Amino acid sequence: MKATFMYGAGDVRVETVPDPVIRESTDAIVRVTRACICGSDLHPFRSRPSGADGTPMGHEFLGVVEDIGTAVTSLRRGDFVIAPFAFQDNSCVFCREGVQTSCIHGGWYGNNGVGGGQAEAVRVPLADGSLVKVPGRIDEALYPALLTLSDVYLTGYHAAWMGRVEAGKTVTVIGDGAVGLSAVLAARRLGAERIILMGRHRSRTDLGVEFGATDVVAERGEDGIARVMELTGGEGSHVVLEAVGHLPAYEQAYGVVRPGGVISRVGVPQYEDAPIGFGSLFGKNVTLTGGPAPVRGYLDAALIEVLEGRLDPGPVFDLSVGIDEVPAGYRAMDDRAALKVLVTF
Amino acid sequence: MKATFMYGAGDVRVETVPDPVIRESTDAIVRVTRACICGSDLHPFRSRPSGADGTPMGHEFLGVVEDIGTAVTSLRRGDFVIAPFAFQDNSCVFCREGVQTSCIHGGWYGNNGVGGGQAEAVRVPLADGSLVKVPGRIDEALYPALLTLSDVYLTGYHAAWMGRVEAGKTVTVIGDGAVGLSAVLAARRLGAERIILMGRHRSRTDLGVEFGATDVVAERGEDGIARVMELTGGEGSHVVLEAVGHLPAYEQAYGVVRPGGVISRVGVPQYEDAPIGFGSLFGKNVTLTGGPAPVRGYLDAALIEVLEGRLDPGPVFDLSVGIDEVPAGYRAMDDRAALKVLVTF
Question: Which residue intervals define the domain Alcohol dehydrogenase-like N-terminal in the entry (chains A, B) (predicted)?
Answer without folding.
Answer: 26-135
